[in-house]
Amino acid sequence: MAWRQSWLAALIAVALCNVGVVADPRWAAFQQPGWEAVEDKITPETIVVILALKQSNVEFLEDRARHVTDPDSAAYGAYYTSDELKSLIGPSDAQVDIVREFLSGTPGRTQFSEARDMVRYVCTVSCVEKVFGTKIKKQQRPTAPGTSPYRAVAPISLPAEVADALDGVSLNAPIFMPPRPKQPVRQAFQYPASHRYAPRINPYLFDAGDAFVTLRFVPYCLDGHPNAESLENGEQRLCQHRGDIVSFEIEILQDASQKVVQLPVTSELLGQRPAECGGQPCFEFNTTVGNIQNFAKTTARIRSHFAGGGVSDFSDPTEVWNVYPLPYTTPTLLANLYGLPLNKPIRDPRNIISVAEFLGQYYNPADLETFFQYMGVRSWEGEGTTQPTLTGSNNPFAGSVLGGEAQLDIQYIMGLAPNVTTSFWSVPGSELTTQQEPFLDWLMQVADTPDDKMTLVHSVSYGDKAEPMPIWFKRRCDVEFMKLALRGVSVLIASGDDGASGTEAQEDLAACSQSHPEYPAGSPWVTAIGATQLANAFTPVCSYTSDNVIVRCQDEREVVCSSSLGGHITSGGGFSEDAPRPWYQKEAVEKYLRQQDNPVPPIGGAWKYNVTGRGYPDISALGNNFLVWMGDHFTPVSGTSASTPLVAAMVARLNEERLEQGMPPLGFLNPLIYKLGSEHPEVFNDVVVGDNRCTAAGCCEIGFGAARGWDAATGFGSLKVDVAMKMLSPKQQAEEAATYVFAEKMPPARPPPSRSSLFAAAGVGAFAGMATLGMVAAYSPSLSRS
Ligand SMILES: *[C@@H]1O[C@H](CO)[C@@H](O)[C@H](O)[C@H]1NC(C)=O
Ligand SMILES: *[C@@H]1O[C@H](CO)[C@@H](O)[C@H](O)[C@H]1NC(C)=O
Ligand SMILES: *[C@@H]1O[C@H](CO)[C@@H](O)[C@H](O)[C@H]1NC(C)=O
User: Fold this and answer.
1) Beta-strand (E) ranges in 379-515?
2) Residue 575 to residues 315, 481, 589, 614, 711: CA-CA distances in angstroms?
3) Which positions are catalytic?
4) What DSSP character marks residue 636?
5) Residue 288, ligand 1, Cβ within 6 A
6) Ligand 2 pocket, Cβ-based, cut-off 6 angstroms
7) How many angstroms does the Cα of residue 505 sit away from the middle of ligand 1?
């Protein structure tokens, strides 16, 4: 059949030959929960469509990929060059011709990938509608500012021969949500009108970290009405006409100890703002109490002292949320925790790592420099790399976001692997204006990278619920990831921030009724990274309490990152519903399903999950409270999207030692990870406390618990880089890691910021009332023993 005579002929051909194709799920109209087509006028700009041609030799290559990634195989590390791969995988010449001819009759621009297994097709919206026989609409979701990808809202119809030659096209491929690294959510608080004297209180974590708790409250006057007066300068009393309040007494309760703060009513110690109390105007105050214990479950209550000696009831403890002050995460903390040499430069020019950024996220180079200075990250004048190279562009454009994600990724990946060559891989690059979600586009670009420029580690903090994604898309991406495994590339994917039940469960408790695995985290050919947080309840005995014994551990180590413990997100994990369990994890996962530390939810029970699927994550790393420099202040962010660039930096460090000794890079990590997990568990900080039943906001009842060995909340736990280094590079087995003296060579750094200037920078300088100094008593009641 000839498709090429003319554009018109092509269209007629479309009309004649699409019989029977429509029912094929590969060509179904785009659907994704939470995304809606908007009726906006579609601008006549071009959009990019990726066509994925069917590949041959996939089974053969899968077999080869197992060999080159299996540490026990003689072929371990014998990766394929781009040319070798091209000669093995790819469509038949006939299929390429069919697709080429079909597209050549259209006005669009066509570019085949090197392996000819993907096509990048650029045309206007109306052109794409005609060529693919569908209707294109703009999709919009409020949580992704500045992004409005186009998708096919009607089934795609292609000539049968063309459809036969393809796995699918990106027009109905899923749109990956931006990862939304989490910042603390301030809960709206209602102050009911109540005829009682106790203040209403709403304490929450001040900036989600360190040893401070901010309390918000409304005091009630002696006559039972909420206070409606503001504190004018110099005023030392509230409720003048209805019983003067002269001070507040705050009790901070932490486990077995409590602190009492006496707070005079002065505008220096209290912030204030107008609020609403049962429909009446009132004034809300705030204050911050400091020097409280990290890691401990913290509640607070407050009462008013009246002039003349009277005192109100304490606020109702049930009004108070538990908060867990946790330390801020910095490169130094991470380096100490994981045995990462912090100021030892990466030198090998082949050691290239990359952060993939989609949906218009960009980073600020000046912020990166500032971050390095504050964090004491060394730079090397003249012979150092302090800025990433760009693939695509980093241009702020209308509606784009100075990405929390992009900033986090680039600051931590480069801070922890100093002088590493980092590629900021922003897709869709120069075609940003098309705002087309570009996951396949990214995979095509990565596949086309020549061997000498190949990125060894990709950090990808993007993912979404797997179930609505078309099967063809998931399987095709799996093959692309497998091709990267054959080339010695590590692909790290964040496991998601909403536990086992997924993002939907944040808003809809019905989503708690089953597990909702994510993709690409659930691909068998990627390494999925979960999140941990620090706690001093890291072994079960550390939280043991009975009438005569209360155990509190002094140091703190990792537990599952969970919003129920102040972690702000909950590490994603579970079992893929459609990718079967891969060979490398059979033993570990089956052991997990049988263990009794934290038994898995009953298989076949009311809470549904597919126990035969690929289990994830594979490993984890700390993922909460990372301090990220955003323009003029530090913001703490949390997420598996923090853990992922951190692990990427660890892998870069391990690769560096290997490259230095003439060994191949680690490449696809999973077969190695599971082998180490079974034979050298000492390489991991095994995480055994916690579970992933919560989401980033709120909790379901069921999820997967951490357990000894691999588990579906944290994988094998986090990597001890120093231990792994000795095991994975022979030279290190003999000598201890070199210590690097850098102090005398440090460039003049800006003076280390004092605590108060840090707070000022964070925009809380105006925040009256750091009540630390007002603390008048601190005591721990002695534990009773019998
Ligand atoms: C506390 O009050 C001050 C003064 O009104 C305000 O600037 C600040 O944002 C408040 N802090 C919080 C955490 O609400
Ligand atoms: C930084 O890396 C480059 C290669 O990317 C290397 O040439 C240079 O020597 C490194 N700098 C230091 C201080 O090791
Ligand atoms: C479970 O997953 C396997 C593949 O991993 C799939 O073949 C099977 O259909 C799934 N079962 C259910 C009930 O979804």
Assistant:
1) 389-391, 401-402, 421-426, 457-460, 464-465, 490-494
2) 44, 18, 10, 5, 11
3) 405, 409, 641
4) E
5) no
6) 345, 347, 349, 380, 383-385, 419, 421
7) 31
The two three-digit tokens of residue 581, written as one number? 């369990």
Residue-wise pLDDT tens digits, 253-308: 887 788 899 999 988 889 999 988 888 888 999 998 888 888 888 888 899 999 88
User: Cβ distance 134 to 157 under 8 Å?
Assistant: yes
Give the separation between CA 645 and CA 650, rounded to whole angstroms. 9
- Taking the centre of ligand 3 as the mean of its atom positions, its distance from the CA of residue 521, in whole angstroms, is 17
Look at residue 19 and tell me whether its pLDDT is greater than 90: no
Q: Over the Cα atoms of the chain, what is R_g?
A: 29
Q: Is the CB of 574 under 6 A from ligand 3?
A: no
Write the residue with the smallest CA distance to atom 11 of ligand 1. Answer: 767
What are phi and psi for residue 666, nearest 5 degrees?
Answer: -70, -30
User: In whole angstroms, what is the distance from residue 522 CA to residue 524 CA?
Assistant: 6
Task: Please work out whether the CB of residue 769 comes within 6 Å of at least one atom of ligand 3.
Answer: no
Cβ burial, residue 128 (10 Å; 0-12/13-18/19+): buried
Q: Which residues contact 337 (CB under 8 A, 6 or more apart)?
A: 622, 718
pLDDT tens digits for 387-422?
A: 888 776 555 543 445 566 788 889 999 999 999 999
380 CA → ligand 2 middle, Å: 8
Helix (H) or strand (E) holding 758: helix 755-759
Q: Is 214 in the pocket of ligand 1 (CB under 6 A)?
A: yes
The bound ligand whose nearest atom lies closest to the alpha carbon of 346 is 2
- Give the whole-angstrom CA distance, residue 467 versus residue 454: 32
Give the distance (Å) from ligand 1 centre to CA of residue 310.
28
Task: Give the H or E element holding residue 442.
Answer: helix 439-447
Nearest-10 Cα torsion for 652, 656, 659, 660: 180
Please give the sequence-ordered ranges of beta strands (E in DSSP) within 113-218, or none if there are none.
Answer: 118-124, 136-140, 150-152, 166-169, 200-205, 213-218
CA distance 14 to 17: 6
Report the separation in Å between the CA atom of 333 and the middle of ligand 2, taken as the mean of its atom positions.
Answer: 25
Q: Provide the 3-class DSSP secondary structure of residue 304.
A: strand
Ligand showing the shortest atom-to-Cα distance for residue 467: 3
- 580 CB less than 6 Å from ligand 3? yes
In DSSP terms, which residues pair with 151 in a beta bridge? 137
